[in-house]
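Its record is retained below.
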Amino acid sequence: MTQLPMRPVAQYYRNHRNLTDALARFAVGDRARIKETGHLGTVESLFGSGPEFHKAIVRCDNGIAQTLSDRELDCLPDHPIVQTVAQRFSLPAEVVANAFNDTPTQMGDRDRYFAPVNGEEPETNFPRHPRYTVRIQHWHPEPEQAYIDYIDLVDPMEVTPSEPECGIRLHPTFQRYVAWYKAGHLPPYPAVFEQVYDGKRKLLGANRRRILTAREAGIRELPVWLGRWNRETGLPLKYGDILAAANQATTLKEAA
């Protein structure tokens, strides 16, 4: 089996502009989830041509067979292409699978929520998401160039607020946030960004009050929107980085 050398993602951008079709393509024997019902099944056969017309016969675990298109199926975290991309960028496989399965519109809509200004009561009316849910910047005209982040758990002690404290601990809302944390209330997800310079990893938090008060309250696993660093490009990870890597991995798989 011959494997072609992997090219940097930046070069792959120049060679493959149609990134929106870079989905994890299925092979016979792959496991998949049917979007409409959530049922799991195994791909028994494939037919058709091109991603828009590609069809699969999927045998569900309940014994029923269905004919479905690529876009009616979700790939699972153990999908070979998902695994390849996840290892390349050191991402959870669930994140990569969600980036393949969700549309840019779905991911962008999750970025439209803005936390209200500090109030007298804990903010409870905000969208909750399961761990590894992904989002991209909703305002970017080219989704593949938008940064991507996902819900994950971090230790606030490992996060450096991007703003100076400037007496924030003396503000009346500080102890109020601490009390809310201790009472079991979680605020809207803070935004945390990974940076890597000279091989050293650092986590920066954009919401200093939520980060510092979580520390004060003894929180050790705080759900956040986590943006990762792409060590190949030296920039924050983009949605297009994942798509291009998937497209490339698919090409390598077909050439092997």
